[in-house]
């Protein structure tokens, strides 16, 4: 049976509605993961051993359990606790908590790659250790981690498809419902693949431009 382009055109508004939700969820999860990763890496580098161990345990827990399981745990667990969360919020929390753990490790690798002499130079100029970290070390570390953070962003975009399992009307959920109603499975999932490819390509291209920009500024 030939590919029905007319079907795709007729149902384009359905795909675009799902695309909007996917972009919204991806953008929020990416930004929150970057911020949460900073918090986690700060705890990971704390002077307090219990705090460091707690942060390390958190990173291991979120990195070694599937994000889908974490979504179910938050979505159904919040209902059992008497504070039910919407599928969108539960999915956003799960994506942020897991990817924040990965981002924290990316930050840590970037920070460790900066020579300690840089910090010592800042201290010699009269900076406090915290000032030396935020003014000298962290900016250099962030320039070095743009590429791995970009890869993590791509993972976030693709993992948004999993929130369809908790009834969030993003692209995959919209496509599944459309396929169930029309049986045009090939057309639906071919279109979804193209839309994901488009979103990931735009994001990756933007991050490459940022990476080139920070290299020029370095």
From TrEMBL:
GO cellular component terms, A-Z: ATP-binding cassette (ABC) transporter complex
Assigned keywords, A-Z: Amino-acid transport, Cell membrane, Membrane, Transmembrane, Transmembrane helix, Transport
InterPro entries tied to this protein: AA_ABC_transptr_permease_3TM, ArtM/GltK/GlnP/TcyL/YhdX-like, MetI-like, MetI-like_sf
Subcellular location: Cell inner membrane; Cell membrane
SUPFAM superfamilies: MetI-like (SSF161098)
Signal peptide: none
Keyword Iron-sulfur attributed: no
Transmembrane residue ranges: 20-43, 72-95, 188-210
Record GO terms (molecular function): transmembrane transporter activity
Pfam families: BPD_transp_1
Keyword check for Transport: yes
Protein's GO biological process: amino acid transport
Residues covered by the ABC transmembrane type-1 domain: 19-207
Main location: membrane
Topological relation to the membrane, as annotated: Multi-pass membrane protein
Record-stated family: Belongs to the binding-protein-dependent transport system permease family. HisMQ subfamily.
Function as written in the Swiss-Prot or TrEMBL entry: Part of the binding-protein-dependent transport system for glutamine; probably responsible for the translocation of the substrate across the membrane.
Protein's name in the database: Amino acid ABC transporter permease
Natural source organism: Enterovirga aerilata
């Amino acid at each position: 049976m030939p590919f029905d382009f007319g079907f795709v055109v007729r149902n384009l508004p359905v795909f675009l509605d799902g695309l909007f939700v996917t972009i919204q969820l991806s953008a929020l999860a990416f930004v929150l993961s970057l911020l949460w990763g900073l918090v986690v890496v700060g705890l990971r580098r704390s002077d307090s051993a219990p705090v460091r161990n707690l942060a390390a345990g958190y990173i291991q827990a979120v990195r070694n359990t599937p994000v889908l399981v974490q979504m179910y745990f938050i979505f159904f667990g919040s209902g059992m606790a008497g504070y039910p969360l919407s599928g969108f919020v539960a999915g956003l929390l799960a994506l942020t908590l897991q990817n924040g753990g990965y981002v924290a490790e990316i930050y840590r690798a970037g920070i460790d790659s900066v020579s300690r002499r840089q910090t010592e130079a800042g201290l010699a100029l009269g900076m406090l250790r915290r000032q030396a970290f935020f003014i000298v070390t962290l900016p250099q570390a962030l320039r070095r981690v743009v590429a791995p953070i970009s890869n993590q962003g791509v993972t976030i975009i693709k993992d948004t498809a999993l929130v369809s399992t908790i009834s969030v009307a993003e692209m995959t959920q919209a496509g599944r419902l459309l396929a169930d109603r029309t049986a045009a499975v090939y057309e639906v999932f071919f279109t979804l693949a193209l839309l994901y490819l488009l979103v990931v390509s735009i994001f990756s291209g933007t991050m490459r431009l940022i990476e080139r920009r920070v290299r020029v500024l370095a």
